[in-house]
Amino acid sequence: MKALLIGLNYAPEPSGNAPYTSKLAQGLADRGVQVNVITGYPHYPEWKIAEGYEGLSMDERHGAVTVKRLRSTVPKHPNGLGRLLMEVTFGARTVLQRWPRPDVVLVVSPALFSAAFAIFRARLFRIPVGIWVQDLYSKGMEETSDGRSSLAPLMKRLEALILRAADGVSVIHDRFREHVVHELGVPGDRVRVIRNWTHVNHHPSFDRSSARDRLGWAPEDFIALHAGNMGVKQGLENVIDAAHLASRNGSDVRFVLLGNGNQRGFLESKASGADRLQFLEPLPDRAYSEALRSADVLLVNERPGVKDMSVPSKLTSYFVTGRPIVAATETGSATSHEMSAAGAGLRVDPGVPEDLVAAIEQLQEDPGSAEDFGAAARQYSEKVLSEEAAVQSYAAWLSDLAFRANSN
User: Is-above-0.85 flag for pTM?
Assistant: First the structure.
């Protein structure tokens, strides 16, 4: 089988969709699929094109995967209009690009609008196309400040049209499937749930004390670590406020924000004077793994009102560490559902820093429960979130799309 994967994000981007798209491409290639990828220039989460990427296009080879990079606009401030322009320019270049003749095309959303261009091109040449939904645009507009905009209903109609135009839709959670089928009107027999997996390799040779020393963490520090993108939907002002509270109260809890994103500068200015807070730059895989496993508690934080727009990709990496998790998220959110299913830790209301500090201190005072939460999370990861199972499911699904197209 020949498969073409199209998405804005790919390795070496360390977070967001890129690790999953990259791992899937390599996993399919390992199973004998001839894989080509069309992607953008690396820019996330810094929102600027990485050094060394010049010109309008580049050709690369990642293992057995052939990668074509197309330059698009990259907004300095990733607001709605800037992101739309980026997706449209990438989508237009994708349509005009010469494609290897694939048996099936898989497009990744985000970016939804560039996916629409790819679906249009695939339809013209009668190539079956699936869309891999990592985030729900319409839910995002409803659950963030953009939800007050009159554009939210329009976005819902556009998202429905684009998803219904594909031959098949893959979503990463059952909650997404409910929305795609019942709210966006995609026929249920065309929607498949395939879960994300951890993309972090945890090396067995690991000295926790040495790792903590390298990160500047004192033995008495009770480390609460948030890893990943620092964007609007994460609502990390709550963590900053919790760090200020911990500083005032003389708490042993030390908050760590690991990663980058368009809100980092704002968060750093808001954090002035919080001596129980540390910012860390993004780390390479092994160092990232060691940071997660060296923390005492791992954090998920979401903006108040966020419920169904996404399932944080960091959870898949968190679960496998065996560390307990505290999630500041709405009751009934997709994140809350996932935390409950895994038995991975404690949930508190978002935007309430006092509750966040209290939950972390609760785990500090009850190490037995913390250990149980971590063990349950790891077990859930091994049973439900296996990379092997996910890649095999995608291989079977794409093969089915190609077979059905050839049979008609």
Answer: no
